[in-house]
Amino acid sequence: MAVSSWRWLNESRWIGLAAAVYAEACGGLAYTFAVYSDHLKETLGYTQTQIDALGSSKDFGGNTGVISGLMYNLFPPWVSVFIGGTCNLFGYLALWMTSKQWIAPPYWLVCLSIMVGANGETWVGTAVMVTSMQTFPNERGVVIGLLKAYIGISGAMFARVYKSFFEPHASAYILMQAVAPFAVSASVMFFIKQYPVLRDADVSETARRFRWSYYIVVVLAVYLMLITIVESVAEVGQAWGSTLTGVMMAVLLLPAAIPFVGGSEYRRLSDADEEQVSGGEEPTLALEKFVRVVPPEYTLAESLRTIDYWLLFFAVAAGTGSGLTIINNLAQIGKALDTKSISSFVSLVSIWNCAGRLLAGYTSEWCVKAGYPRTLMLVGVIAVMGITQLLLASGAAFTLYIGSILVGLSYGAHWTLTPVITSEMFGLKHYGAIYNTVTISSPLAAYFLSTWVAGVLYDREAEVQHAGDPSPAHTCHGPECFRTTLLILAAVCAAGVACGLVLVSRTRALYKVHTVKPDSEQAKHY
């Protein structure tokens, strides 16, 4: 039956998607750590090991969402969004006051502040991702790819804002990083909810709305990429730079039109349709194409007892942990290679982080429908990350541009593939808790690789270079500052590929495709 336009305003899942897009457009600010890490290092007198530990604290906060996953099942989604915005506000406000030297907390408290601020992203992300997958059960890969893309590109957008309005005042940028996500979360939180099970009256409208959503983020990514290229080869004045940023902000208004692209007529699904949707397939349309094995619903405890969980855990740890190590040390790597465009590298990583998330969403859906395990694509992106580490280890300055692109592409793809693979392997009922334990692997690996490998080796080389210098210098120059670290990261990725290949062989049956005629006897069993 058709749903009236007035009722549609309250029940349209597309309004929820637009709200989710804006929430996630502030979800990647942790990737801008390189914008202000050098400022913190100089202002607070930290060593590289301390800066890496601070970055790892941020990563722990940004990837530790077990509590938010458990809380999601107890309270409405807007509660999680509000808690997330509040954590972001107070965590980064404390970091801002520290950077201004208005307060002088002990080092562990500075780490706790950035951890709390970054943890806000997990509260918002858990509510947005789980709600969106429940609202769009048949388009999980596409929806997650879209939302994760906005997380990826948000770093480039905020780096752009920093370059236009704040550079070189990194402390002012930290204040903006505290306030802006809170304001956005408070504005959209009541639209992040579970919507009635409705479908577009015209099936083509669904594809049209998704295309519109993807076009916007692609336009943003291409636009930011062009700006980055222009500014790297030519001098752009402050006025022009601010104008270009204003155009970016105007484009960012377009997702608000997602609910209004196409018609506003919907039909409510029958009970039979709803039952099929809960299984993850479109009632008739999907049966004409394929039917996949539906996994059982695992609890958190049950998933932790499986080999597949730990294979996924270690594969994700290798790929994302090595990627975060590069992202967190981007400023220092650039400085070691005598480059000055740190914000440009941050933008490149973020833009291609977005591209990786988008490409992984659509490409992995195609692979699954063709009968290939989605886990096979995960192996591919880990391999790309490992090859990138070897490229960066060469020490040539130009490799930092190529490396920024490949690190962003691979790292972004991980964060589209991992949530979807987790839901496919262990179900959606306890997804929030299970997924957020899988993601703990990322900060754990990043902490070890950043602090105890990259940080220690960097400081050791800096001591060698400044031997006999009485000043407490913590700066290293030359490709040797990170070469050994990068070779170790490549070896870690090789181990991740090995874990991934075992996981591919174990999950192949899960992704087995059965072609079924809609009116056949076999169709009745699905």
Automatic annotation (TrEMBL):
Membrane-spanning parts: 14-36, 74-95, 107-130, 142-162, 174-192, 212-234, 240-261, 309-330, 342-360, 372-392, 398-421, 433-454, 486-504
Domain NFD4 C-terminal: 303-511
Keyword Transmembrane helix: yes
GO terms under cellular component: membrane
Keywords: Membrane, Transmembrane, Transmembrane helix
Compartments, record wording: Membrane
Short name of any one Pfam family annotated for the protein: NFD4_C
Annotated membrane topology: Multi-pass membrane protein
Domain Nodulin-like: residue ranges: 13-260
InterPro entries in the cross-refs: MFS_trans_sf, NFD4_C, Nodulin-like
SUPFAM superfamilies associated with the record: MFS general substrate transporter
Record flagged with keyword Transport: no
Protein name per Swiss-Prot or TrEMBL: Major facilitator superfamily protein
Organism: Klebsormidium nitens (Green alga)
